[in-house]
Each structure stands twice: as C-alpha cells, then as structure tokens.
Amino acid sequence: MTLADLLVPTYRNMLGTLRGLLDKAEAQFGARADRLMSARLAPDMFSLATQVRFACVQAQEAPLRLMGRSLEPLDSLLNEGRNAGEHPGSLADARGRIDEALAFLDTLEPGAIDADPHAALELTLPMGLTFDVTREQFARDWALAQFYFHVMAAYAILRKEGVEIGKADYVPHMFAYLRPPADA
Predict the structure, then answer these.
(1) Euclidean distance between CA atoms 166 and 8, whole angstroms
(2) Where does residue 104 rank: exposed (0-12), middle (13-18), buried (19+ CB within 10 A)?
(3) What pLDDT digit, counting tens, does each position of 7-34 carry?
(4) Which residues of the chain have pLDDT under 50?
(5) In a 3-state reduction of DSSP, which class is residue 165?
(6) How far is CA 63 from CA 5, 10, 52, 171, in A?
(7) 125-138 pLDDT, tens per residue?
(8) Do residues 72 and 154 touch, judged by C-beta distance below 8 A?
(9) Structural Rg of the chain based on CA atoms
(10) Which ranges of the chain does DSSP label H, i.e. alpha helix?
(11) Are 111 and 4 in contact (CB under 8 A)?
C-alpha cells in the first residue's frame, strides 16, 4: 500500500463524513445551526469551527509535507482556525473549507506523495518540538492521528450539542461494502 493509497481515500471519506455531520446539524437545527460553530467540548478546547478548519488543514498539510512543498498556502486557513473562537463563521463557510480540501486532493498527481516511505522526514511543530520520523511513520502515526482527532472532536461537539448522529453517520462510506442479506 502506498502513502497515497493510505491517506487520500481516508481524507476523502472522512471529509465527506464531516460534511454529512454538518448537513445533519443544519437539517435538525435549521436557522439556529450556525450557533453550533462556537460550541466546544470543554472551555480549553477549540470550537467546532476550528475543529473543521484544522481537519481541512490536516488533509492538505500531510500531502504538502510529503511532496516537500511549503505549508505557506495553509497559513490563511490555519489563522482562520486559530481565530474561529472570535469569528466562527457559518456552517456554509465550514462546508466551503471542506470542499476546498477535497478540491486540493483532486489536484494530487498519481505518485506525488509516494516517494520512499522509509526516507527521513523532519516534523517540526510551531511550538518548537521536532520529531525525526520516516515518511511512513509521519503518515501513519502523525498525519492520520491528527486528522481523526479533529474529525472526532467535531463529531463529539455536535453530539454534545444535541445533534442526533451516531456511528453510522461517522462511517457512512462503509455502507458501500455492506454485504446484502442472504435470502431466507
């Protein structure tokens, strides 16, 4: 399995999940749904608006890092996420960010992120921590974990706020693999 085989379908599936969760929130809450963008699980955690934006960042950051490209194109989205507590935006804004992340994934050329999975990758975080990992370790142990964290936090916030969602809403892509029931 290549890094692209691991990451890109996962990002597509779960960004679709995130979009579906937001759609359900809007269907259930109507005009009040935008207020959910400011909701948090705990006072010291990021809001739903930030969780959505950071999930979108993660889906783009990993491929950019794996291609050796600058992360500068993500600065605006990162800043928007960091400031979402004061400016959460709307569900429509959040869906727009998801669409942008999906469009970015569409631009990836076959093999673009599949260089040697065992090659070294230096992961330096803004707070000054640096991790020495292989490209495979980065994808498996960091990129996917960060991405799932933000998607799951968004799910949990919506549940906490009373949106009626469940496991089937978190993994709707799995229904494509559902075996039909055997004839009785």
Answers:
(1) 24
(2) middle
(3) 999 999 999 999 999 999 999 999 999 9
(4) none
(5) coil
(6) 12, 12, 18, 23
(7) 888 899 999 999 99
(8) no
(9) 17
(10) 3-29, 48-66, 75-82, 91-106, 135-137, 144-160, 167-170
(11) yes
